[in-house]
Amino acid sequence: MSTKVEPTSHKRSVNKRSGAQAVIEALKAEGANLLFGVTGGAIMPIYDALYKDSDLRHIMVGHEQGGAHMAEGYARVTGEPGVILTTSGPGATNLVTGLADAIMDSTPLIAITGQVATSLIGNDAFQEADVRGITMPVTKHNYLVQNSDHLPQIFAEGFHISRSGRPGPVLIDIPKDLQVQQTSAIRPKEIELEGYKPPYEGHPKQIRKALEVIQNCERPVILAGGGVLHAEASQELMDFAEALNIPVVSTLMGLGNFPIDHPLSLGMPGMHGTGYAILSLYHCDAMICVGTRLDDRITGKLDEFCPWAKLIHIDIDASEIGKNVPAMVPIVGHAKPVLKDLIKSVGSWESRPDWTEWHNQVNGWRKEYPLGYKEKENQILPQQVIEEVDSLLDDDAIITTGVGQHQMWTAQYYTFRKPRTWLTSGGLGTMGYGFPAALGAKLAKPEAPVVCIDGDGSFIMNMQELVTAVRYRIPVVCVILNNLFLGMVRQWQHLFFEDRFAETTLMPPAFDQVAIACGGLGKRVERPEELNQAIKWALKEAEEKRLPVVLNVMTDCEECVYPMVPAGGANVNFIPGPEGKK
């Protein structure tokens, strides 16, 4: 995308103000009233302007990566860009993981970084880094501001780019001298970007082709991803699936878009998907993909993913269509209007296809390959923890996770029924995402219970944000499934490396005591009979005391996530698990 920034012209007289004040003004104009960040030398003028303005709330974080994940959590709950501010050099480079996470999962984010003065750029000045160059591969677009007169236009453009089309992160790098430089430039009324016009409506011809494929198929499946969420198209997905009685598979990022306990829901596909979702995708003859990248964790071995399927691929990002799996009917467009057009056309059909035989087959796979585990005496199994949390929360509760076994168990055993209630790192697989994302989510939606289900390895990555949660009295509950290992890697070592547990044994601290030392609340849970009351206590105490609560739940280290598809293998050859039924 080529963006030419011109000095903003204006007809009315505007009092001059500093570039830093123009930044605050721009944030307020975009409705960004909650900011996350860490101050420092190169961004001090902006923080000084923020100090003088009482309309914006700022959360000082413990680490810039944690702040980026908080901003992501805020964005994933609200649908609006989260905002993170950092200083130059290490402050800005600490954002890279959060930006990469946001670009992979299409999360709208605005990163504002301070930079050394323009006269020092390129001189290896103290805390200088080529932030624009470093972050170019992990942002949707980024800017190095060259004149304070450009700031109002750049911020208007940045928010527009971040929100529109396929959402993503935008970085704005502002040299320190431009933050104090005076400007009278104002925000443009309209944003027109050369070469950037995200599609919205699907092409009518392609929609007709898709309907022809659906009318003439015998074994259809809908594969719905995170793009449905970004398009606010969950209701349209439901209406379309029910209108034609088509089974729905929800990707990891698409969980919550379609109620997991709906009769048409088949759960999650891929490496740790349900057996019946995997087999339905393998045997289908028409696959309607909506807002999903069809990445390797979904497809497994590509030439055995959906060998008989005619693929209808709906996505707002044309580059994703056909990238991994060839599409017979590509439809470039926003999921909401495309699904509406499909529903409207189906409503005029004189008769609907009868897929009774296909449903009977799918239901047979449900019975043959149910999710399940075998209870162990006096040991807490991680699946039990998920089910217990699920039983105590309503549909509006928000669940976040880190990355690893606990993430997959949560995706498998928690009953997600509503969109924007499930926050996890899908594409990048970022350990340490869960707890800071939970803080951002709670600040975005304070009336909803927010629970982070984390692993001991993941929690260690960003546990400094306990201090942030206590400082601002953010009442989230973190349930740590503590198996004393890097569990997912240990599982692979057990299955594929002959139990050579190389550098996966952890010696984690007593997380409950760490929470207490930071000023929060904590409790250790060791026996199955303690679990229910401990979770009830945590939910109650968090809200009453307005503090974070950590439950350090000791779980069985030998438990593995099943089903499982070995890396590079065909999904159809999944390992169902050693125990079978519960």
How would you portray this structure in words?
The protein is α/β, with parallel strands linked by helices. It folds into three domains: 17-183, Thiamin diphosphate (ThDP)-binding fold, Pyr/PP domains (Rossmann fold, 3-Layer(aba) Sandwich); 204-368, TPP-binding domain (Rossmann fold, 3-Layer(aba) Sandwich); 382-562, Rossmann fold. The protein contains 23 helices and 19 strands. Strands 3-2-4-5-7-6 form a six-stranded parallel sheet, with helices on both faces. Strand 18, helix 23 and strand 19 (549-554) form a beta-alpha-beta unit. Helix 1 crosses helix 2 (44-51), helix 11 (234-244) runs parallel beside helix 14 and helix 16 crosses helix 17 (405-413). The radius of gyration is 25 Å and the shape is globular.
What is the CATH homologous superfamily assignment of the largest domain? Thiamin diphosphate (ThDP)-binding fold, Pyr/PP domains
Helical percentage: 25-40%
For this structure, the CATH topology of the largest domain is: Rossmann fold
Beta fraction of the residues?
5-15%
CATH class wording of the largest domain: Alpha Beta
**Radius of gyration from CA coordinates:** 25 Å
Task: Give the strand order of the largest sheet, numbering strands 1, 2, ... along the chain.
Answer: 3-2-4-5-7-6
The helix/strand class is alpha/beta
CATH architecture of the largest domain: 3-Layer(aba) Sandwich
Tally of separate helices: 23
The total beta strand count reads: 19
Count of folded domains: 3
Query: Gap between N and C termini, in Å?
Result: 52 Å
Largest sheet: 6 strands, parallel
Shape: globular
Regions with little confidence, pLDDT below 50 for 5+ residues: 1-13
Question: Overall mean pLDDT score?
Answer: 95
